[in-house]
Specification:
alpha/beta; three-stranded mixed beta sheet; binds pyridoxal-5'-phosphate
Amino acid sequence: MRRDPLAYLTSELDSLKQQGLYRPLRVLEGEQKPTTTFDHRQVVNLSSNNYLGLTTHPRLRERALEATRTLGVGTGSVRTIAGTMAIHVELEQRLAAFKNTEAVVVFQSGFAANAGTVAAILTKDDVVISDELNHASIVDGCRLSRATIKIFPHRDVDAARSVLAALPVAQRKLLITDGVFSMDGDLGALPGLCAVAEEFGCIMMVDDAHASGVFGENGRGTIDHFGLHGRVDIQVGTLSKAIGVLGGYVAGGRALIEFLHHRARPFLFSTSHPPAVAASCIAALDVLEQEPEIIERLWENTRFFKAGLQALGFSTGSSESPITPVIVGEGALAMKLSDALFAKGVFAQGIAFPTVARDKARVRTIVTATHTRDELQFALDVFAAVGRDLGII
Ligand SMILES: Cc1ncc(COP(=O)(O)O)c(C=O)c1O
């Protein structure tokens, strides 16, 4: 009999099971909503990035259906051959106006936007200076670029400055940070980093995946929030979180965008979004512009829920956004907490190493604009009961 050359993977999985870190995929049986059904259990859902509830917004749904009826279900090609439809261009123009930049290019995902851009614009002769907690897609882009990678401690502008000061003046360098950090919910040190980038003639890049639709006027992101328009060379956003659909984009100058058309490998070598995706993203921008009160509701819910967790005595780290971690330390305890919450009707995913540091395992909560006060109060009551049972509070 043939020996299974992949047997080592089963051993790895067994080891995860022994450590209490094995996670089967939870299956959502209905729509992505604040109360919904996962694995046959109705739960208050604190695990999606659907900040504004747009995954099920009637205007987006209608535009997706209309685009499917009139334009079909797929594009049949990559963007650079036959897969650029007028609706893709319309979305990019709308995003450029929204982000206040010359141009935008849309990628298939935020991951592809980050990884594809960093890998395209840097070579092995360049240096990238990156916050230690930047998203995996940035890390992978840095590795793919073969540039020298210098990591600075989280949000430490002085440390980033020291790295830059030690590099030759003529060295090409990219300084890169998340706008909102996805596991801790804190903000990148944007004003300080922009100043340092300017001082050392560095390219400045911000991944605003969790900020678009959440921070700034009408959800324009952290660059708008901090008043940094014109000082960030490359802005990445995602269409998969607050926008409620799928995709990522890069906003910046026209030369950057045209260069990415020619050199960003996910853009060149992967088929473009179906028309329904582009159409519903355009509808999402209409909603951000015409119904900004949903962003205010998101923040009201955020303040209520965060204050509730803190009043119960949970450790919520340094979050400044709707992402509120409940940090418990050990990975196995985080998974236990998540399972116990789920059994009582609250879905907050457990997160452990390697996604976060070994001693910083947590369950991660995200409220949305569409949670009701009753749903959030119910979730807080369950957190209180389970947290006491497990000796966390
Ligand atoms: C900070 C950050 N950047 C980029 C991404 C990737 O976005 P997408 O889900 O659109 O690929 C994510 C999503 O997990 C993220 O949290």
